[in-house]
Amino acid sequence: MLGRYYNDEIPDIEITGISCNTKDVEYGNIFVCIEGSSEDGHKYAQKAYELGAKIIVSSKPLMASVPVVETNDTKEALCYLTKRYYGVPDLKLFAVTGTNGKTSVSYFSAEILKAAGLKCGIIGTNGVWLGDEEIQINLSTPTTPDMPGLYHILSVMQKLGADCAVMEVSSHALSQNRIDGLSFEAGAFTNLTQDHLDYHKTMEDYFLAKQKLFEVCKTGAVNIDDSYGKRILEKYPHLISYGEREGIVRAENIRYETEGSIFELIIGQSRYVQQIHIPGTFSVYNALASAAMCYAAGISDIAITSGLKNMRGICGRMERISCRGGFDIIIDYAHTPDGLLKVLESIDKIKNGRVICVFGCGGDRDRTKRPIMGKIATEMSDIAVITSDNPRCEPPVEIIIDILTGVVSDNYIVIENRKKAIEAAINMARPGDIVLLAGKGQERYQIIGREKRFFDEREIIEKYIKA
User: Fold this and answer.
1) Which residues of 332-343 are buried (b: 16+ CB within 10 A; e: fewer)?
2) CA 376, 379, 385, 388: dihedral to nearest 10 degrees?
3) Which end of the chain is more exposed for a tag (fewer CB within 10 A), N or C?
4) Any idea what DSSP says for residue 62?
């Protein structure tokens, strides 16, 4: 029998939180049924109840024996309940969006804010951090949590004494209104290149989703070297620009080295000799984005230059492992055509030998980028080892066939098993070579079918080299 609570019949129940994804449901939660583009939360009401939810908020009749509060608009109800339960955070918030660079810009920015004397949290692909401590919170969404998860995290950070937080904001999060009710001191736009077209369908839709961020930012910084960035600057003229050759914040006389880069950092009318400890052209751009966003928010030049220099490395972002055989292994999250191109261009500037690139493409995602990545990897590497990434529910062989349609040379091998592909690349390496493991970055798992299996490239490297 379908149970319904009306305003005068709701019992006295102790609520432990708000959720809208069954992966996040905890005992005592209110579960709000949200209808999305591919899934309808109303189908999971019974499961949420069995997992411990005490009340289900619904806008449809439910074929389930669950206690229900009915509403006309569950998205509006989710926002209202989330803010009532967790409260609107009293933190200075900073947001980073774009196809590539969000994680790195977040970490650079957090170091700048730390240098400014602020206790800063980070929310994004590499998890939830406050200072050097990771906050263990289960997240069903890898980059930007859903609204209840996000407000929950911010409330925890505030209780732990945070002054501010930097968060990655994905296009999915902006499309799905996950940041509703929040306002940001400043935002940053890194770039826009092909990705997520399985969800957004067109680049214009993808761009419009990203652009929405600046409707809730007091100020911000935008990459003027990116054509989409120029469009954002035209629409929001109060934002400041950054770039390699032009912009209010820019870099000149860049010298690329194996351990990082040295350049002249221009901030407004001031000029500084700046060192960063992460190599690559895109690392300079990420540093500029962080500097520009913090400068726009009123952070001092001293804190900006100190913070950039203090940033020593980011898990899965040009993460370098030196091997006894005289070659280096670089682990990077590059999983888009532009990301792969940028990391290979950066390696080209610091290499002393050959480049061996191990990469694959994710399953159940945009198929059109696969041949593009195949072309880039074989053109920009001496040897490409084509393998699996996260195949999900697609047969890995079919993904590899898609990649091969873009390959025009014969400097590649195919090894479907990613562990064996990594071992083969290490076997090929000679002194001076660089082995790039692209696509997994910080991930310590591989998704095969619907199963998330433990898979840590660092552990594979260590065990194989020791053996």
Assistant:
1) bbbbbbbbbbbb
2) 10
3) N
4) -
Superfamily of segment(s) 3-85: MurE/MurF, N-terminal domain (3.40.1390.10)
SS3 47: helix
pLDDT digits 0-9 by tens, 413-431: 999 999 999 999 999 999 9
Report d(CA 335, CA 333) in Å as an integer. 6
Helix then strand then coil, in percent of the chain rounded to 5, is: 35, 25, 40
- For residue 135, how many other CB atoms are within 10 A of its CB? 15
CB 252 within 8 A of CB 264: yes
Between CA 108 and CA 22 the distance in angstroms is: 34
For 298-387, where are the alpha helices, taking DSSP H only? Answer: 301-310, 337-350, 369-380
Question: Among 215, 220, 276, 219, which Cα is nearest to 251's?
Answer: 276
Q: What are phi and psi of 16, to 5 degrees?
A: -105, -5
CATH of the domain spanning 92-310: 3.40.1190.10
- What are 44-69's pLDDT values in tens digits? 999 999 999 999 999 998 877 888 99
E-only strand ranges, 147-295? 164-168, 184-189, 217-223, 240-243, 249-257, 260-267, 270-276
The β-bridge relationship of strands 319-322 and 260-267 is unpaired
Q: Which range among 61-70, 131-140, 203-212 has the greatest average pLDDT?
A: 203-212
CA 46 distance to own-chain centroid: 32
101, 192 Cβ separation under 8 angstroms: no
| Fold equal for 3-85 and 92-310 | no
CB burial of 1-22 (b: ≥16 within 10 Å; e: otherwise) equals eeeeeeeeeeeeeeeebbbbbb
* Cα gap 383→435, rounded to integer Å: 10
| Residues 6 or more apart whose Cβ sits within 8 Å of residue 143 | 102, 124, 125, 168, 170, 172, 173
What is the CATH number assigned to the segment(s) 319-466?
Answer: 3.90.190.20
Q: Return the sign of the alpha-carbon dihedral for residues 154, 156, 158, 162.
A: negative
